[in-house]
TrEMBL record:
Coiled coil: none annotated. The lineage of its organism: Bacteria, Bacillati, Bacillota, Clostridia, Eubacteriales. This is CRISPR type III-associated protein domain-containing protein. It comes from the Bacteria. Residues 682-704 have a biased composition (Polar residues). It holds the Pfam family RAMPs. GO terms for biological process: defense response to virus. InterPro entries: CRISPR-assoc_RAMP_BGP1436 (IPR023825), RAMP_III_fam (IPR005537). Keywords: Antiviral defense. Residues 1-23, 676-705 are annotated as: Disordered. Residues 1-12 have a biased composition (Basic and acidic residues).
Length: 740
């Protein structure tokens, strides 16, 4: 994984000193992410009770205000907005921050400061997961129970290593019907009720099947190497670089060894028709899976479809969630289809079938996928975690009434009401582009990994109990989980990749930002705003004296931080009596200056008198304003790393499952992170700290949990001694011809 240079750039020295006083006090503990969350308000405020109360657009209302706000911003770190390949955004006057970007930023501020209900902005995703080896024992147990995976004791773990598949797992074929729905047809069962068979890589190699049909994971030369010299990196290099392995499925004919209950001969169905005792089915493999200390080197045969049993339809909600997960997981959010991942697609043509694995509960398809150890659906979607008070009500909050909406009302589940009842409302605020002042030059291309944080990271995105153990972490399987709120990035100094970034070129984006100290200026126009509405808009723009904002790409790495030139904010209000008086006037004659502070205070007063809310004392507002002023040290606020160097060792920080501390605790230097559990790699003469803090007993064998591999004296396998378990497994496969 690419690492970032934590050192201050020479060009940053002057700016760094100016921020020292605002950097967090107390300890500088790593906080777990470059972002945090602003909680939902304790309640949400309805500014208007219904559509008919909204100010009209075709006439000016008594006591309502119209005018403009002129602004000027200074970039404190480089800023980039635009298409990454084309450079910084330009309009006909030159470089500029688009008005749409400013609109999005100010809108999010109003949602927080206006105590708005932003449930409609939260996508109701339904995530999938696979948990075989994490420290979250409860989630791991739920996963195993849903698939019917055997218990953790050594005996059943050894049975699993010899080839047992999840008890609830079934095999069959998925087909897209003429009606657009997907159906699964079960595979035939043999006399023992088996629908699928595992085939080892070595056994398959002896079949000498055509390489264009059957993709073997490893070449013969690879197996002939000294196994003790192999590392996990060797395996991945062989897999990706030398072999170019891709998942596959192919129709085959095969024979069964009745005495052993195993597959004997295998031939490609294209080359021969089934004769005599040959069965028909599909041979497939989803690919090599490196998971911690073990790897999967297995192919599968699924028996032919049972034609006398009708297919079972898959719920469309499941299909949509599966496709969304595929785009997120395989395509990293890019919806462009790729041949490399075609194996994982549901059939796109009606009548076409593909082999598939699935789980059925009470006659309903509940989980499905193209690997035996399925990614399965959590029990609940994201909207289940929205606080109850925000799930109901169609009154109009400040955000909707100021920025408009395309469809109103919406139902409690976020879906639109009946079409003939839907109404739309145009925004009363418009944003011009913020033009770059002078003639700034783009910086040289800066490589960054623009990975988006994922809400699947439940320790970070869901509210967690205080100082929980990993088994107490809330997940999307608990009916009472709560999402944390609105994500905001911490301010920091900009980072750059180190020189060794080239090995990650395929995941890099090259940005050409405008440098820090660039100024941007522009105008916001408004019409028909009440005094409290104008005050909220001005507060969302100006915040507090030391506040900053962040805009554009690269926020996790410190880019896009800007500060408003408060002394250059110009509020102008239209005098309608002059503007529409009987005499002709020049355009500027009807504009008069206004005092921003007057209207900001009018909003605070309105909230107090109308709703009995001291808005500045609301906890979520205080958290937001804290984050808006705080510049943290780069080392505190970074993404977690898979191989983080610490105390001379590489540590996978994701495995710690550390929840985020609150914004207040981070600012006050009170970050508390649960100690990471360390397990010894040795199987004898070692002691380690267990989850409950006690000493682990010395043992000649390792209990199999997740993907740790059992290696004991009593089933004819090599002992672990000081070797990692994944390497022992490879040794056993090479020496015994097994991968069970």
């Amino acid at each position: 994984m690419a690492k970032f240079n934590r050192d201050q750039h020479p060009s940053d020295k002057s700016s760094n000193s100016s921020h020292d006083a605002r950097q967090s006090k107390g300890n500088f503990e790593y906080v777990g992410a470059p972002y945090n969350f602003i909680d939902f308000p304790r309640r949400w405020v309805a500014r208007y009770d219904g559509f008919e109360q909204l100010p009209p657009h075709d006439r000016y209302g008594d006591g309502l205000l119209s005018g403009s706000i002129d602004l000027k911003w200074k970039a404190e770190t480089p800023v980039f907005i635009g298409h990454k390949e084309e450079g910084f955004f330009r309009n006909h006057q030159g470089f500029a921050i688009p008005g749409s970007s400013m609109r999005g930023m100010i809108r999010s501020h109003i949602q927080i400061l206006g105590m708005c209900n932003y449930r409609d902005d939260i996508e109701n995703q339904w995530f999938l997961y696979r948990d075989m080896a994490s420290r979250n024992q409860r989630l791991k147990a739920q996963y195993r129970a849903n698939l019917g995976i055997v218990s953790h004791n050594i005996q059943s773990a050894q049975q699993q290593e010899r080839g047992a598949l999840p008890d609830k797992l079934k095999a069959g074929y998925v087909e897209k019907g003429e009606d657009g729905k997907y159906y699964i047809f079960p595979a035939q069962q043999d006399k023992k009720g088996v629908q699928m068979y595992r085939i080892s890589e070595r056994h398959l190699r002896r079949m000498k099947l055509p390489p264009d049909k059957v993709k073997l994971m490893y070449k013969k030369e690879f197996w002939e190497q000294d196994i003790n010299k192999l590392t996990p990196q060797d395996i991945n290099k062989e897999y990706y670089d030398k072999h170019g392995y891709r998942p596959y499925y192919v129709p085959v004919c095969y024979t069964m060894d009745a005495a052993k209950g195993k597959v004997g001969k295998i031939v490609i169905k294209d080359a021969v028709s089934a004769e005599g005792q040959m069965e028909e089915g599909y041979l497939l493999s989803s690919g090599y899976m490196y998971a911690g200390k073990s790897g999967k080197l297995t192919h599968y045969i699924i028996r032919a479809a049972e034609e006398n049993i009708p297919g079972r339809a898959i719920d469309k909600t499941y299909v949509d969630a599966y496709n969304t997960d595929l785009i997120r997981k395989k395509y990293k959010g890019n919806e462009r289809l790729d041949k490399e991942y075609e194996f994982y697609h549901l059939p796109e043509e009606a009548g076409r079938r593909k082999p598939i694995f699935y789980v059925e509960t009470a006659g309903k398809i509940t989980y499905f996928g193209f690997t035996p150890y399925l990614r399965i659906f959590y029990d609940y979607s994201v909207h289940q975690g929205i606080p109850q008070a925000f799930r109901a009500g169609d009154q109009l909050d400040y955000c909707k009434s100021l920025f408009g909406f395309s469809a109103y009302p919406s139902s409690n589940d976020g879906e639109l009401a009946e079409p003939d009842a839907v109404q739309a409302y145009k925004s009363r605020i418009s944003f011009e582009d913020m033009q770059a002042v002078g003639n700034p030059c783009e910086m040289d291309p800066i490589p960054l990994i623009l990975a988006e944080p994922k809400a699947t990271a439940y320790p970070l995105y869901l509210k967690q109990p205080d100082a929980p153990s990993t088994g107490e972490l809330a997940t999307y399987n608990e009916p009472n989980f709560t999402i944390r709120g609105m994500k905001r990035y911490w301010f920091k100094e900009e980072e750059r990749l180190e020189k060794n970034h080239k090995k990650n070129d395929r995941i890099l984006s090259y940005l050409r930002p405008l440098p820090k100290d660039t100024y941007f200026q522009g105008r916001i126009r408004f019409s028909n705003l009440a005094q409290d509405e104008l005050g909220l808009l001005l507060w969302a723009i100006m915040l507090e004296a030391e506040s900053k904002v962040q805009i554009g790409k690269g926020k996790p790495y410190g880019y896009g931080r800007m500060k408003l030139k408060r002394e250059e904010v110009i509020l102008q209000l239209e005098d309608l009596a002059i503007k529409y008086g009987s005499r002709l006037t020049f355009a500027s004659d009807y504009l008069k200056p206004g005092c921003p502070e007057k209207y900001i205070q009018a909003y605070w007063k309105y909230m107090q008198e109308k709703y009995q809310i001291d808005i500045r004392q609301e906890p979520h507002v205080q958290s937001f304003l804290m984050m808006a002023k705080q510049v943290l040290r780069n080392e505190q606020v970074r993404y977690m790393e898979i191989e983080r160097q610490a105390n001379g060792e590489k540590n996978n920080e994701y495995k710690g499952l550390h929840p985020l501390s609150s914004v207040k605790d981070v600012v006050e230097g009170k970050v508390v992170r649960r100690a990471t559990v360390r397990r010894s790699n040795k199987s004898s003469g070692s002691s380690g700290i267990t989850e409950n803090g006690g000493k682990s007993k010395s043992s000649r064998s390792k209990t199999v949990t997740g993907c740790e591999i059992s290696a004991t004296d009593n089933h004819n396998e090599l002992q672990v001694k000081d070797l990692p378990a994944w390497k022992v497994k490879l040794m056993n496969m090479v020496n015994t011809g097994k991968n069970d």
